[in-house]
């Protein structure tokens, strides 16, 4: 099968994923169906017949087909307003409208999770309700649950978020938090809806949702204490098999699409196919019953395709991820034989939601949806009242890690060190009622925006809130020198993790040397505090946010500290107080961690 090209209204907007040689996907609006020899068409999701073209009678004509279009996002994170290449919720909805066109019955709008959480201030300040309303109004049909949907705890997800998606109905809203591998603790009883069915062009499309197995380490454990996060591959294949067994009593789908809130740390399709991660296992091990895989979590953009055992050689399964923050849509087009209602052609691509004008400015590539635009405007007005209040000044930009700030959580950053300094100050100044901390640690994933100097260095409430949007409290605990070394070793994440390293921000006074490419457990070569070597038996009072204190981001040693205490201070309030106590805040210096 060789897909034939088809004109696309906005061909210039097709993303870089189309240029990946390994994908062999050209973003066709329709692909030529595969003719299958007689005897191969089985009409179910098993063996080589799943993708039979339904060809009968000698090959003198192609079967009648229809094309289903799926438009997807992932990791939107409450980016309601346009900002750079983040198109904003109104343009996102407008793009779905335009790409759907006049045929409203052939397109579904889907998400691979993290629609909310880690949001910008406009959404965060209103508990993400404007984002939920904008996505619902913009036509979102189904969504996997992401780890950030659990940021405020499972009770908040099921009692507030899900009903909000359902416009007051928890039953309708359940389709927006699919999680087939989320179970009640100690059981195999699903805690969330596992799949959703949608009828398109007379074809039933089944969507199965799964979330990264690392969720337990990515959100505050107290909020998910009643849950287990099981194996994604097992859950995906189990539910796909259920939807393909011919028994209508337990759900049945002609086409099965996996919405997986997990992904690759890179964009090279050949590397993704072989990577030694849970996601790599998911891509390779997904059963022949699954026709396409949407992914997320790692904020990458790729449109790959891979052969599947039991499928015709010409057929490949699309595996896509749409970058982050509403910069991109990932599009999968499934051509289905109308008689058998089975796929005969599959194609995936990426579509950018912004473009560059003649002056080099970033502009929307699609018109805004007016209804969603009104939601965004109202949310922005409400947020600005509080957010505009100035709280201090900075002397220069204070940035996250990476060539593009925030793009690399595995390197030291000025902002990470500054936030650690802020939290140390908040837990050791003269107004602090507890035993003063000596060291503070900050996880890079908790930093969601930079502090930019702008025109005069003024920092507002909104600026500070956007840096740490999770609402964590500050904790202190005692760690030995040996435990502190173990924590620093845990920056190199467990095998199979999406990100190989998470570089902690550390407060002034603590310093260490390391070897990047050392064997696991042997990276840290020395540690010192205020210039003095740290012995294994030394004990330090260490401050951190509640997420880290519970062992989040796989820093499990931090859950083993002694004399742990919640200070009652939120990270946001601590940062605001720090700015109010300092006339001018400078970027924290780099070099507290020294590579050898």
Question: Overview of this structure, please?
Answer:
The structure is a single chain. The protein is an alpha/beta fold. It has 2 domains: 11-78 and 108-115 and 141-355, Purple Acid Phosphatase, chain A, domain 2, CATH 3.60.21; 388-595, 5'-Nucleotidase, C-terminal domain (5'-nucleotidase,  domain 2, Alpha-Beta Complex), CATH 3.90.780. The protein has 15 helices and 26 strands. The strands form 7 sheets. It has a 6-stranded mixed β-sheet, with helices on one face. It has a 5-stranded mixed β-sheet with strand order 3-2-1-12-13, with helices on one face. α1 packs antiparallel against α10, α3 packs antiparallel against α10 and α11 (414-426) packs across α15 (571-581). Residues 1-49 and 52-60 have low confidence and may be disordered.
Radius of gyration: 25 Å
| CATH architect. name of the largest domain | 4-Layer Sandwich
The low-pLDDT segments are 1-49, 52-60
Distance between the termini: 53 Å
Indicate how many domains the architecture comprises. 2
**Relative strand content:** 15-25%
Main beta sheet strand tally, sense and closure: 6 strands, mixed
Number of β-strand runs: 26
Separate helix tally: 15
Residues in helix, %: 10-25%
CATH domain topology of the largest domain: Purple Acid Phosphatase, chain A, domain 2
């Amino acid at each position: 099968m060789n897909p034939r090209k088809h004109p696309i209204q906005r061909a210039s907007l097709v993303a870089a994923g189309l240029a990946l040689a390994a994908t062999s996907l050209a973003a066709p609006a329709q692909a030529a169906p595969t003719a299958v020899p007689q005897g191969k068409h089985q009409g179910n999701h098993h063996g080589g017949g799943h993708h039979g073209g339904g060809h009968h009678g000698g090959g003198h004509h192609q079967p009648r087909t229809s094309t289903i279009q799926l438009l997807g996002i992932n990791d939107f994170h409450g980016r309601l307003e346009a900002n750079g290449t983040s198109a904003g919720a109104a343009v996102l909805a407008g793009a779905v409208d335009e790409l759907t066109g006049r045929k409203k019955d052939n397109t579904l709008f889907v998400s691979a999770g993290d629609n909310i959480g880690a949001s910008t201030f406009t959404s965060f300040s209103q508990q993400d309700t404007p984002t939920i309303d904008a996505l619902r109004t913009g036509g979102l049909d189904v969504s996997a649950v992401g780890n950030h949907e659990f940021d405020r705890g499972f009770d908040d997800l099921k009692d507030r978020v899900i009903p909000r998606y359902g416009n007051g109905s928890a039953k309708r809203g359940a389709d927006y938090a699919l999680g087939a591998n989320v179970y009640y603790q100690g059981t195999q009883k699903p805690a969330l809806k596992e799949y959703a069915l949608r009828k398109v062009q007379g074809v039933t499309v089944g969507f199965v949702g799964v979330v990264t197995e690392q969720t337990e380490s990515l959100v505050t454990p107290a909020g998910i204490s009643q849950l287990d996060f099981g194996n994604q591959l097992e859950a995906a294949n189990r539910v796909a098999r259920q939807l393909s067994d011919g028994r209508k009593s337990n759900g049945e789908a002609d086409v099965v699409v996996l919405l997986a809130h997990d992904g690759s740390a890179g964009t090279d399709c050949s590397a993704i196919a072989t990577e030694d991660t849970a996601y790599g296992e998911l891509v390779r091990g997904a059963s022949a019953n699954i026709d396409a895989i949407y992914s997320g979590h790692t904020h990458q953009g790729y449109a790959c395709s891979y052969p599947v055992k039991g499928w015709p050689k010409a057929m490949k399964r699309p595996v896509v991820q749409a970058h982050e923050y509403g910069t991109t849509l990932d599009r999968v087009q499934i051509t289905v034989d109308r008689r058998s209602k089975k796929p005969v052609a599959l194609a995936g691509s990426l579509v950018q939601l912004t473009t560059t004008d003649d002056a080099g400015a970033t502009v929307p590539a699609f018109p805004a949806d007016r209804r969603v635009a009104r939601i965004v405007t109202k949310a922005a007005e409400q947020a600005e009242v509080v957010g505009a209040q100035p709280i201090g000044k900075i002397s220069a930009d204070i940035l996250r890690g990476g060539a593009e700030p925030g793009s690399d959580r595995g390197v030291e950053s000025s902002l990470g060190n500054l936030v650690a300094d802020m939290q140390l100050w908040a837990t050791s100044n003269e107004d602090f009622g507890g035993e003063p901390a000596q060291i503070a640690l900050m996880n890079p994933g908790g930093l969601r925006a930079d502090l930019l100097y702008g025109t005069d260095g003024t920092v507002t409430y909104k600026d500070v809130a956007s840096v740490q949007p999770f609402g964590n409290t500050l904790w202190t605990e005692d760690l030995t020198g040996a435990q502190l070394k173990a924590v620093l070793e845990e920056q190199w994440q467990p095998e199979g993790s999406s990100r190989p390293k998470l570089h902690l921000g550390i407060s002034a006074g603590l310093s260490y040397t390391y070897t990047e490419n050392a064997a696991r457990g042997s990276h840290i070569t020395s540690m010192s505090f205020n210039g003095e070597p740290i012995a294994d038996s030394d004990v330090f009072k260490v401050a951190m946010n509640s997420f880290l204190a519970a062992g989040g981001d796989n820093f499990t040693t931090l859950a083993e500290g002694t004399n742990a205490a919640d200070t009652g201070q939120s990270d946001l309030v601590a940062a605001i107080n720090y700015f109010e106590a300092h006339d001018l805040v400078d970027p924290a210096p780099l070099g507290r961690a020294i590579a050898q």
